[in-house]
């Protein structure tokens, strides 16, 4: 028994006549009759009551009709879903994100992609940049949004956005001489810094010959902003994080210092040819 025989059988059962079914199938009547008889011989039962006026289903034929419709429907759905997966229209994508990627994900194009292809599922894994790079190397995730600076080989990448660092300044510390903060101004206030940039900041402070008081070091840029809003110090974080998280109790002051500019990048293993689904995701940025 094969799908073609089932298709022929359903056509005859629905038409009630072999001749009419043959016309619908665009084939001659003898080959169709032969296929039905072959199916009956294989199953060892009579499926059709044949008369000059047409055919009716035997009890065995009625049972097969139910199963045949289910099987044909299952085949159609399997064919559709497998093709969709192969074309990047469905499937599961594992995406790593850093906490400071809120300015890049989700974006308008990604929302459009998932609206057009609602069977695409995205599983998010949150970690710091190097944790996500390790996950990529172990093939635990498909792609990641990470933030410079970082050093890693074997990664393909796509630059998403570059932004300045800013100071999130509670009113009690908002005594800077200008709206734009200089690095040397930070020596006068307690700082809350995101551990991801601790080495970069300390190197800069040493080069500038200043020794700011680091009141708090944390693992999440959002936490740094929240502590600044609580008037625990001045947070130094990427601009998009400050704009998304900071409340009305603190001002956001740009820090115009080129070495502190940071870039969000989309990265994936260079040795892996992106699947159609992954390529659609990459193209959405």
Automatic annotation (TrEMBL):
SUPFAM superfamilies: Periplasmic binding protein-like II (SSF53850), Winged helix' DNA-binding domain (SSF46785). Keywords: DNA-binding, Transcription, Transcription regulation. Residues 1-58 form the HTH lysR-type domain. PROSITE patterns: HTH_LYSR (PS50931). It comes from the Bacteria. InterPro entries: LysR_HTH_N (IPR000847), LysR_subst-bd (IPR005119), WH-like_DNA-bd_sf (IPR036388), WH_DNA-bd_sf (IPR036390). Signal peptide: none annotated. Belongs to the LysR transcriptional regulatory family. PANTHER family: HTH-TYPE TRANSCRIPTIONAL REGULATOR CYNR (PTHR30346:SF28), TRANSCRIPTIONAL DUAL REGULATOR HCAR-RELATED (PTHR30346). This is LysR family transcriptional regulator. It comes from Levilactobacillus tujiorum. The lineage of its organism: Bacteria, Bacillati, Bacillota, Bacilli, Lactobacillales.
């Amino acid at each position: 028994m094969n799908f073609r025989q089932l298709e022929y059988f359903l056509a005859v059962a629905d038409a009630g006549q072999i001749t009419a079914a043959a016309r619908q199938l665009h084939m001659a009547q003898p080959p169709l009759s032969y296929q039905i008889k072959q199916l009956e011989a294989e199953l060892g039962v009579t499926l059709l009551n044949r008369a000059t006026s047409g055919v009716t289903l035997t009890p065995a034929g009625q049972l097969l009709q139910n199963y045949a419709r289910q099987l044909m429907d299952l085949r159609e759905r399997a064919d559709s879903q497998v093709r969709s997966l192969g074309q990047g229209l469905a499937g599961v994508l594992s995406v790593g994100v850093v906490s400071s990627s809120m300015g890049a994900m989700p974006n308008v194009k990604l929302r459009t992609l998932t609206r057009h292809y609602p069977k695409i599922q995205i599983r998010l894994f949150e970690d710091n940049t190097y944790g996500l790079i390790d996950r990529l190397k172990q093939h635990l995730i498909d792609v990641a949004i990470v933030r410079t600076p970082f050093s890693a080989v074997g990664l393909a990448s796509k630059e998403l956005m570059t932004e300045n660092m800013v100071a999130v300044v509670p009113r009690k510390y908002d005594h800077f001489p200008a709206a734009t903060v200089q690095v040397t101004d930070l020596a006068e206030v307690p700082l809350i810094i995101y551990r991801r940039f601790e080495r970069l900041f300390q190197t800069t402070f040493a080069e500038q010959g200043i020794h700011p008081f680091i009141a708090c070091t944390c693992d999440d840029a959002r936490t740094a902003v929240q502590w600044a809003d609580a008037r625990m110090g001045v947070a130094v974080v990427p601009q998009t994080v400050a704009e998304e998280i900071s409340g009305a109790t603190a001002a956001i002051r740009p820090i115009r210092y080129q070495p502190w500019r940071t870039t969000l990048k989309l990265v994936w293993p260079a040795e892996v040819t992106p699947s159609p689904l992954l390529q659609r995701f990459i193209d959405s940025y």
